[in-house]
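can u do me a favor
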């Protein structure tokens, strides 16, 4: 895959610096972090001389001058200077700009695509929701982060398998089944005419209230959970039927946000395919599990923390010195299932799952597969890497999971297992609790509906757009506003969602980026010029124009950085910078009224290239560029 001019010149500069430093007899070290892009005086600046001066006992400027003198001719570099200890690289604005624009025009997708993944297979699990109520905005953050990460990894050359884990044997699911079985007898209130995930949500909240009033009923729910784990029972069949109905219903929410998966893995199938037994066999061979005959863990199967290798400080000095995998009643807890699941993901347990199509064709044109008792063998799992998105409060469990893999001699798998925890989400003036039902009015569906309505009101000043067009555009603007607002905050931080910030058309928002793209489109329409096949490089010498081109040129590098750091907010920051650079460019130079035909065509070619960069980068985040606003 072709590298962008930016990636090329940066690589050439680093290589030249490394050779120059070596030729001067100085020790070699990693130079990547010493190369920056100052806002003035140079296009690239290297600070390596300061580090060298500490051991060489020489003035940094003397060292920088010596390095600069050793730099040979480099493509795109016009001159090399030394100033105040920095080695400065000044680009040939015309040559570099022309190639950046040609690169962006030749293939819009090339500006973002990279091959750093080298076809590494990656499983990414996200948005897996307990099947008892509709998505609230916490689930939505999981979904949007997961989708953006999957897009980023795929764009960077990874083979991504998007998984949904159906937790249909948990305590919450058992409460939903118990409430369904007893709703008439106990007068549990829920509206059966509502979409099934909303009906389940009301059922779940009502049942929780009843259990709070009469705690003795908890024994009944535990009996239901035990029967759900036994294949062929009425409770097990009902649990599967309810969860399938829930999945069908909540897919409507997922699709409205453009969220798609490849396969659903059912917790009940992990139990049914005896993955737990195979997992326990592996741990027993490695002498990591015990079954105490007395004490508080009597009858349980446990892992004693002191038996684990390389125990990190976070797992030392805890009140409990062991972790239960199998309870004394024979039921497996979440940790046990998670260990087994990840062993399957990494191919340590044979793939005995059977798969069938749950949805023949999703709106993205691809089917959604599911594990099923009656299906066929398919090539899911057995990946090189595995990433799971959950609430940041589950960091401890995933750290333990990594240590367990390390302790069975699978250090490579342990390092390839990644947990991305995200902070909680609140709306201004509200907080959420699934159990108490405070998600009502704050569901992901409610949020999108309100975003569309607010966006449509904000657009009513335009007389050039028909009502039908305005409604379609408002849907895209509202969706873009939500996605951008959720993704612009680093994953581990808490979000307090604000409509004023999300729908700000003047900066630091999705609508601002979409508006900038539409503005560029409008300029092209007014010009009446198709993409110029030839243009001179004399239009790119001024500071505002060249700054836009430099910002555009870094697109591929920004996508790679976002992928390496698992931070979609790297791209939201980049898009804001790119939009601002375009605004400064358009305010500083003539485009439509430019008298020089070569400059006019060059600047129009630049705007076409800018649109390609903007559209492709927005798409990585799952946000649609808009032609008119």
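np, heres the sequence
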């Amino acid at each position: 895959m072709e590298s962008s001019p930016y990636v090329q010149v940066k690589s050439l500069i680093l290589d030249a610096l490394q050779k120059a430093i070596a030729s001067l007899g100085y020790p070699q070290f990693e130079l990547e972090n010493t190369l920056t892009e100052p806002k003035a005086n140079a296009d690239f600046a290297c600070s390596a001389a300061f580090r060298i001066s500490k051991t060489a006992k020489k003035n940094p400027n003397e060292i920088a001058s010596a390095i600069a003198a050793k730099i040979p001719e480099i493509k795109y570099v016009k001159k090399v200077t030394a100033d105040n200890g920095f080695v400065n690289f000044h680009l040939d604005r015309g040559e570099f700009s022309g190639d950046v624009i040609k690169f962006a025009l030749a293939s819009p997708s090339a500006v973002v695509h990279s091959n750093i993944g080298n076809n590494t297979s990656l499983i990414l699990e996200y948005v897996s929701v307990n099947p008892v109520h509709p998505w609230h905005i916490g689930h939505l953050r999981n979904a949007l982060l997961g989708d953006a990460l999957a897009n980023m990894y795929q764009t960077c050359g990874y083979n991504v398998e998007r998984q949904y884990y159906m937790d249909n044997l948990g305590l919450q699911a058992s409460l939903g089944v118990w409430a369904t079985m007893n709703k008439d007898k106990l007068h549990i209130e829920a509206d059966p005419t509502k979409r099934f995930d909303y009906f389940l949500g009301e059922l779940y909240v009502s049942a929780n209230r009843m259990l709070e009033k009469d705690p003795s009923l908890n024994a009944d729910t535990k009996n239901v959970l035990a029967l759900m784990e036994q294949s062929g029972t009425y409770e097990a069949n009902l649990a599967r039927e309810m969860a399938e109905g829930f999945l069908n219903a909540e897919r409507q929410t997922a699709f409205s946000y453009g969220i798609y998966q490849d396969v659903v893995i059912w917790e009940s199938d992990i139990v049914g395919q005896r993955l737990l037994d195979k997992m326990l066999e592996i741990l027993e061979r490695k002498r990591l599990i015990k079954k105490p005959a007395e004490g508080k863990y009597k009858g349980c199967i446990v892992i004693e923390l002191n038996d684990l290798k390389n125990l990190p400080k976070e797992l030392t000095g805890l009140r409990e010195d062991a972790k239960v995998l199998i309870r004394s009643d024979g039921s497996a807890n979440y940790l046990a299932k998670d260990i087994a699941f990840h062993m399957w993901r990494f191919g340590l347990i044979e793939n005995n799952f059977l798969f069938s199509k749950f949805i023949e064709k999703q709106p993205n044109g691809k089917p959604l597969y599911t594990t099923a008792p009656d299906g066929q063998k398919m090539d899911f799992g057995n990946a090189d890497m595995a990433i799971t998105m959950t609430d940041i409060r589950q960091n401890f469990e995933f750290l333990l999971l990594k240590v367990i893999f390390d302790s069975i001699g699978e250090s490579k798998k342990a390092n390839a297992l990644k947990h991305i925890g995200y902070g909680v989400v609140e709306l201004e003036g509200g907080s959420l609790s699934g159990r108490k039902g405070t998600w009502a009015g704050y569901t992901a569906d409610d949020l999108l509906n309100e975003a569309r309505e607010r966006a449509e009101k904000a657009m009513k000043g335009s007389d050039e757009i028909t009502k039908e067009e305005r409604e379609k555009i408002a849907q895209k603007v509202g969706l873009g506003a939500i996605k951008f607002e959720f993704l612009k905050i680093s994953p581990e931080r808490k979000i307090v969602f604000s409509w004023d910030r999300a729908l700000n058309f003047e900066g630091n928002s999705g609508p601002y980026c979409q508006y900038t793209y539409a503005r560029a489109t409008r300029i092209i329409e007014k010009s009446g010029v198709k993409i110029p096949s030839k243009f001179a490089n004399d239009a790119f010498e001024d500071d505002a124009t060249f700054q836009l081109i430099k910002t555009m040129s870094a697109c591929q590098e920004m996508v790679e950085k976002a992928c390496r750091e698992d931070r979609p907010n790297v791209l939201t920051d980049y898009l804001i910078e790119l939009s601002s650079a375009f605004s400064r460019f358009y305010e500083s130079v003539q485009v439509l009224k430019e008298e020089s035909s070569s400059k006019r065509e060059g600047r129009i070619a630049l705007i076409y290239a800018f649109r390609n960069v903007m559209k492709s980068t927005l798409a990585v985040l799952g946000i649609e560029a808009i032609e008119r606003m």
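Confidence is low (pLDDT under 50) at residues 431-437. hope that helps!!
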